[in-house]
UniProtKB/TrEMBL annotation:
Keywords assigned: Cell membrane, Membrane, Transmembrane, Transmembrane helix
Domain (ABC3 transporter permease C-terminal) ranges: 60-175
Principal subcellular localization: membrane
Compartmental location: Cell membrane
Organism: Candidatus Gemmiger avistercoris
Name under which the protein is recorded: ABC transporter permease
PANTHER family linked to this entry: BLL1001 PROTEIN, MEMBRANE COMPONENT OF PREDICTED ABC SUPERFAMILY METABOLITE UPTAKE TRANSPORTER
């Protein structure tokens, strides 16, 4: 089978005349089955679509990491509160008031949330800066894309984090109110 040679030509025109030049070239290409026309606008649109798919997959990955972190936080908080039931019962037996116990539970939960938020910022921002630099260097032929801090996502993360810790603390307090000190001491023996 005979294969036709492949030639590529670049046509650079005055930006003011680009519409008319493109229309003229499209007329020429339409009349010949062996010619094709690629425009810079079409290539830019294609690369934007490819970038959107790549960035979308990274966005999904980051949401999955967030979900994993939230589940881990719930597990850690609940297991810690369950393990400290005996300790809390002993504190109540020696004179800790309900109010003091509730303050201790809420402060402990908020300390978990604050520690998680600080570690996220201290570790996450440098890692994301390096990842942005590496991915943009590989993707854009050495050109480094400017990093943009995800304020919306971080705000949602902090809202979920502190809200979740507050809900878990309130759940523990509600559970503490249902049980008397004697019932709790008996259950732990």
């Amino acid at each position: 089978m005979f294969q036709r040679p492949f030639w590529r030509s670049h046509i650079i025109s005055d930006p003011g005349l680009s519409q008319s030049v493109e229309a003229g070239l499209e007329n020429i290409v339409a009349g010949n089955a062996y010619l094709g026309l690629d425009t810079m606008a079409a290539k830019a649109e294609y690369f934007e679509q490819v970038d959107a798919v790549g960035f979308g997959s990274f966005q999904i990955l980051s949401w999955l990491i967030l979900l994993f972190g939230v589940v881990n936080l719930i597990n850690t908080t609940l297991s810690n509160q369950m393990a400290r039931r005996r300790e809390n019962s002993i504190f109540r037996a020696v004179g800790l008031t309900q109010r003091q116990l509730y303050q201790m539970i809420v402060c402990e939960g908020l300390c978990y949330a604050l520690t998680a938020a600080m570690m996220t910022l201290l570790v996450g921002v440098p890692v994301s800066l390096l990842a942005c630099r590496a991915v943009s260097a590989m993707t854009y032929g050495g050109k480094i894309v400017a990093y943009r801090f995800p304020f919306l996502e971080m705000g949602l993360f902090l809202l979920a984090l502190f809200g979740l810790e507050l809900i878990l603390s309130l759940w523990t307090i509600r559970r503490q109110k249902k049980c008397s000190l004697i019932e709790e001491m008996r259950a732990l023996e």
